[in-house]
Amino acid sequence: MRQLLFSEALIQTKGPPPTLAVLPPTKHHVMAVSAQESTMDRILQEISPVGHRLEGMVGAMASLTAETKSIHKDIASFQTRVLGLEQRVTTVEAQAASFQDRDQELLFLRSKLTDLDDRSQRDNIQFLGFLENIEGEDIHAFLWETLPKLTGITFDPPLEFQRAHRLGPRRLDTDTRPDRS
Which domain of life is it from (predicted)? Predict the structure, then answer.
């Protein structure tokens, strides 16, 4: 609630303003007034340094308020940037998990490819030193007859061939093995 000044209170009262009688100053009145004035002067002298310090504090408070507002703006900016970075990190983590899944799948496929390659070459035998077209029309029959003679081993049960391929014509360079391609 706001306090009214004496002059405002006079305006708000109803009726005509009161009249003040001016009395001549008395000796006690003059002494009381001069004592009051000297007391007031001393109080003002004592309060004056405090007032100057308060004015300095008001300026410092205004400066602190401005700095606080600036810090709040900076914090809001940092929060926005941190949120953006958190979203990017979440995206990168999801991609990393996807890459780990792909790596596992790639390792599995490599293992399977190695196994299939090993299996496809495991049962392959290549005979070198035979004359060209010695096998005739039936390469399987030639191998069934020739292998027991060459090795001296009787195969019981007889040998089983899944596939048999003849090599191409004889090459001039006999020191190197033929290509597998």
Answer: Eukaryota
